[in-house]
Amino acid sequence: MLTIVNCARCHAPTLQLRTQGAKSIRCTTCKAVTLGKQLLSPSPYNHAPPGPLPQVHSSKRAVLCGVSYKNSRYELDGCVHDAELMKALLISQFKFPESSIVLLTEEESDPNRRPTKYNMRMALYWLVLGCQSGDSLVFYYSGHGSQQKNYDGDEKDGYDETICPSDFETEGPIVDDEINWTIVRPLPRGVKLHAVIDACHSGTALDLPFLCRMDDRQGGYVWEDHRPRSGLWKGTSGGEVISFSSCDDGQNSIQISSSNIPSTGAMTSCFIQAILHGHGTTYWNLINAMRSMISRMLLPQDEEEEEGCCAILCFLATLLTGKSPTSGSRQEPQLTASEPFDVETRLFSL
């Protein structure tokens, strides 16, 4: 079974496959062997669904989720298209093998490739399973995002961020704590994970320790420390995670549509366009290009479309959090990371 345990020597959380009766686990960070009763601190999210996992094919692999909530009151038009565009980008621009990309949408004929909570959990476990130095991983999500009250004190604003599988009404959302524990904490040294989250309330959707607060007027940035006061570690086991999200935690995301092309998420569209137009050189250039493009999209008709597709879910978020969401007239893509870095000079690559 899949589980996360803390190494007895370095205390790094490590994702492992444990066979029934296993008496030891080797840490992927310091290589120490943890024995018997030393196997402490199992993950609260170690209930990976049973069943065969896809074979890991490559040092480059990705999980892409496009959730449209078909035939429901939460239906979104562009999310499947978003995921398909991201798949094409990874293959054509970053040389990801198609066989190493798991695509989850409601349009997939294989029931194991639908974006249910069960399948999304399986895919996230698969993404980091057996990862080693030199691997480049991508997690992409397009769909509804929401918030719920946080009761363990590990959120700076008092709210957990969530993403919504296709069956979230019956199975519940996936909370940022679980995403962090599943694909962030297990990463060993030398592994790089990028996340791209196109959803409302997604600024800290991976619960990463540091948020890059951009100053659009001054043209600078500062890394905000979002580490919990409790001291709970939200970083990796030596690897690196960088996440692009479509908006701040208190903001909503918009979709754009045209008579000539299918609907798509504004953030996804800007992310792809920025890279194809040569702005994906440094993280600074990329995030600023995305922000500039989205600011030009925020016209009155876009706000009306946002109200139509997200009004119900935003209302539910208001009930859960007890606060009113920020006006949808602003959407500012955010950058978070497991460790601060020089955004202006660091080269972007997947």
From TrEMBL:
Domain of life according to the entry: Eukaryota
Domain (Peptidase C14 caspase) ranges: 60-337
GO biological process, one term: proteolysis
Signal peptide annotation: none
Gene Ontology molecular-function annotations: cysteine-type endopeptidase activity
InterPro entries: Caspase-like_dom_sf, Metacaspase, Pept_C14_caspase
Cross-referenced PANTHER family: METACASPASE-2 (PTHR48104:SF45), METACASPASE-4 (PTHR48104)
Protein family membership: Belongs to the peptidase C14B family.
Name of the protein in its database record: Metacaspase-1
Organism whose genome encodes this protein: Theobroma cacao
